[in-house]
Design goal:
60 residues; mainly alpha; 2 helices; 85% helix; 0% strand; elongated
Amino acid sequence: MSTLVLLVILLLGLVGLILVGALAYAVHRRPALSQPLTVALTGAAVFAAVIALIVTVGGQ
């Protein structure tokens, strides 16, 4: 993998952490939406699947 691809994955990871944090904060502010931990972990799992797909495709 090239350095550019690794840098893009790193930046995507940082953006994903920000999004997961935003999901957890939004649900924490409005508890009627759902449990904060469940929403944050679901968002993290989806994001991890996307990054795994990018790494798999980039490695071929």
